[in-house]
Write a structure and sequence with these properties.
The protein has about 220 residues and is an alpha/beta fold. The chain has seven helices and ten strands. It has a domain of about 110 residues: Rossmann fold. The structure holds adenosine-5'-triphosphate. It is a peripheral membrane protein.
Length: about 220
């Protein structure tokens, strides 16, 4: 599904945020990406989203070198990827329903079909009963679940998350990770950047560890 071949990313012509990365993530895998602050986790995810291009090497997703996608193809490429951020980036003046519906509105999905999919996504994260609420009326953990519903409403084959539990207490963090595991169980490939080692070592998935932009460990679940 994802292949990094000798990938490097240099910012500003001299700083190597990522260097010589070689790894692959198979379809249906769930992988944690860990490392200190500044190790390059977000940069690596941005390469997969094609928000950045590698300075060296190639990033292949589903067999395609994504640097070669034409600008007009990029939106289609991104549709297969759901993204969850630490600060969930919800629109504060829109209801939960509308926040989750947004990716479908952008794609022009027909209204009734959109409603069906939004409700299915909200149901999966246990928030169907809050569809009319505004984000501010929800707890941090619930807001993050809305962010996950929005990420999966397009039924992406790949789900990326950047520190999705960053602001949550240990129990809520575990609940959020369990949700990602649910989506993985139904076949979605999941890559989660997290520095919460206590939590992710307990979860027993493959772990890629970055240090100063280099891959220093690739550990299968024990
Ligand atoms: N657009 C950019 N321009 C210049 N330098 C950048 C840019 N984005 C990231 N960097 C630098 O690249 C390095 C890796 O950053 P990145 O955000 O990928 O790390 P991270 O592991 O996600 O860190 P954190 O956990 O703090 O988010 C850092 O030193 C950062 O300052």
């Amino acid at each position: 599904m994802i292949v990094f071949e000798h990938v490097g990313k240099r910012y500003g012509g001299r700083f190597d945020a990522l260097a010589n990365l070689d790894f692959r993530v198979d379809r249906g895998e769930m992988v944690f990406l860990t490392g200190h602050s500044g190790a390059g986790k977000s940069s690596l995810l941005r390469l997969i989203m094609r928000l950045e291009r590698p300075t060296r090497g190639r990033v292949l997703v589903a067999g395609h070198d994504i640097a070669r996608l034409h600008a007009s193809q990029v939106p289609f490429y991104r549709r297969q990827i759901g993204v969850v951020f630490q600060d969930h980036q919800l629109l504060l003046d829109r209801s939960i329903y509308h926040n989750v519906a947004l990716p479908l509105e952008i794609r022009g999905v027909e209204h009734r079909e959109a409603a069906r999919r939004v409700r299915a996504a909200l149901d999966k994260v246990g928030l169907l009963h809050r569809e009319k609420a505004l984000p501010i009326e929800l707890s941090g953990g619930e807001q993050q679940r809305v962010g996950i519903a929005r990420a999966v409403v397009n039924k992406p084959s790949l789900l990326l998350a950047d520190e999705p539990t960053g602001n949550l207490d240990p129990q809520l963090s575990a609940d959020i990770m369990a949700l990602f595991e649910d989506f993985n169980r139904i076949g979605t490939t999941v890559v989660i950047a997290s520095h919460d080692l206590a939590l992710i070592t307990r979860l027993r998935h493959r772990m890629l560890r970055l240090r100063d932009g280099r891959l220093v460990a690739d550990e299968e679940a024990a």
